[in-house]
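Researcher: We plan to redesign the surface later, but first we want a full-length starting point. Tokens attached.
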């Protein structure tokens, strides 16, 4: 049995397109795109009351973490940190939704720890201060250049074949 290398599982949330991208970043090598959803994957919360909005997004994103963890495991990696990075608040949502969602994951996940951050539009990150922590913590490993990892994963979003497409579940 080989030792699995620690990595951060980073989930980019494109709020306008209602789409997510999950990738890995570790101290060795460039960030690794893992999987993504189709546009509109997160839009089922629209028109619902606050509790249903929160419940839907919690369950959908918990599934992303589980699948992402499985993809890491298959690559001899282990999640040392989960990080959600959103490019804004969810449109047509209760104004409390982002904070409540972020706090849910931070309280629900103890090990590995979780962070939820907000990035500028289109993930245009130039420095660490461009990531605004909403809840939780950012990875502590000094070897991980988090802003660079998020920026690189964001740049790969449009690269054909870089991501495994996870289609929307049947409703």
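Model: Full-length starting sequence:
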């Amino acid at each position: 049995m080989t030792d699995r290398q620690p990595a951060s599982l980073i989930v980019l949330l494109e709020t306008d397109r209602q789409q997510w991208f999950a990738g890995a970043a570790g101290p060795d090598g460039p960030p690794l795109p893992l999987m993504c959803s189709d546009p509109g994957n997160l839009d089922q919360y629209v028109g619902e009351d606050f509790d249903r909005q929160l419940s839907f997004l919690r369950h959908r994103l918990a599934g992303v973490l589980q699948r992402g963890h499985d993809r890491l495991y298959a690559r001899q990696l282990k999640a040392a940190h989960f990080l959600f990075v959103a490019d804004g608040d969810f449109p047509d949502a209760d104004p409390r939704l982002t904070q409540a969602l972020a706090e849910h994951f931070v309280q629900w996940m103890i090990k590995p720890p979780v962070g939820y951050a907000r990035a500028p539009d289109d993930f245009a990150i130039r420095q660490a201060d461009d990531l605004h922590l909403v809840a939780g913590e950012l990875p502590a490993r000094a070897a991980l250049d988090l802003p660079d990892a998020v920026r690189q994963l964001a740049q790969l979003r449009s690269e054909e074949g870089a991501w495994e497409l996870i289609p929307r579940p049947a409703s």
